[in-house]
Amino acid sequence: DKGNHRHFMAKEIHEQPEVVAHTLTHYLDMAAGTLRQPFEPAVEWKGLSRLSVSACGTAYYAGLTAKYWFERLARLPVEIDVASEFRYREAPMPENGLALFISQSGETADTLACLKYAKQERQTILSVVNMPTSTIARESDAVAPTLAGPEIGVASTKAFTCQLTALACLALAAARARGTLSAEDEIRHVQHLIALPGLLAKALELEPEIERLARELSKASDVLYLGRGTSFPLALEGALKLKEISYIHAEGYAAGELKHGPIALIDEDMPVIVVAPHDALFEKTASNMQEVAARGGRIILITDARGAAECGITPEATIIMPEMDPLFAPIVYALPIQMIAYQTAVFMGKDVDQPRNLAKSVTVE
Ligand code: F6R
């Protein structure tokens, strides 16, 4: 049932404040403003030498974002790869290692193959899954659920933000167990997580503006997405979402890689979508943006009021996000990324819920 929405994808985008809140209640003690104690899933984070993550597509980008959180908050080294590469690499895995698999369906063939390999390598298996009865959930030692509810649209939206939410909570739990998070910092980060559903609701209000922007984007044949730090995986996710439902060619790049190649593509025909909350890396991204502007590039900037004031150029369009703490900002910045893809594809008359050549669950290699 699509409710009042034209597509499942629209319904699922709009459900995000609710399902992220639901997912948070699983991991947080809302009244105390802390992580739940005991924290489920119970994982031995303390003596861990490495976390090895594998997943596919959007779930992989959730893992790539979480790498920044596990490393920064818990000082835990993270190795991450797409499942279809990891499974054939014969990668050595550390003694007493933890392997993390992220999957909405819990049935993705390549991700499951990695899980089986990690088992042979005697890793503890942790999975972040949306389908509690799935094969990946059943094969795991510990499951960290996402409570997104069924996701029908082929393009993942609410599963992604719920994966990020669960992973943020896991990174905090790891940090607490490893002694890298003070009680005050735990409370501060948990407050930021509790603020997410309200911020997601605010981000949804940007839809009319994004609809206007989408009309312009629909004329493009190529779009470049740039981001740094935790905005880099979002640039990759933005490009994936746009290409899979609008069939416009798009690429995501780490902003710092611009001058190592992709800057050659810049001209007045290719929109460049820059994801840049005003965080510690903002100035670096702003200078990349200025390089694009100096070459006549068309910039669409997704930032906050401060970023808009301090970017040093006049972008073709600016999407102004609410103010928030930068650490978990990707969870909120995912929404304009999804809405841009959705509105562009709808304007172009594409079948957003059933894009050509794609299946919801990839159970063959
Ligand atoms: C993109 C998308 C896919 C899935 C990928 C993994 O919008 O939906 O890239 O994220 O096929 O699927 P799961 O999470 O079911 O393992």
From TrEMBL:
Q: Name one GO molecular function term.
A: glutamine-fructose-6-phosphate transaminase (isomerizing) activity
- Where does the SIS domain lie? 31-180, 213-355
Keywords noted in UniProt: Aminotransferase, Cytoplasm, Glutamine amidotransferase, Repeat, Transferase
Q: Please tell me whether the keyword Repeat is annotated for this protein.
A: yes
Superkingdom of origin: Bacteria
Any idea of its EC number? Answer: 2.6.1.16
| Protein's UniProt keywords contain Transferase | yes
What GO terms fall under cellular component here?
A: cytosol
Catalysed reaction equations from the record: D-fructose 6-phosphate + L-glutamine = D-glucosamine 6-phosphate + L-glutamate
Q: Where in the cell is it found?
A: Cytoplasm
Active site location: 360 (for fru-6p isomerization activity)
Question: What's an example GO BP annotation here?
Answer: fructose 6-phosphate metabolic process
Described purpose of this protein according to its UniProt entry? Catalyzes the first step in hexosamine metabolism, converting fructose-6P into glucosamine-6P using glutamine as a nitrogen source.
* Subunit annotation: Homodimer.
Instruction: State what protein this is by name.
Output: Glutamine--fructose-6-phosphate aminotransferase [isomerizing]
The full protein's residues present here are 244 to 608 of 608
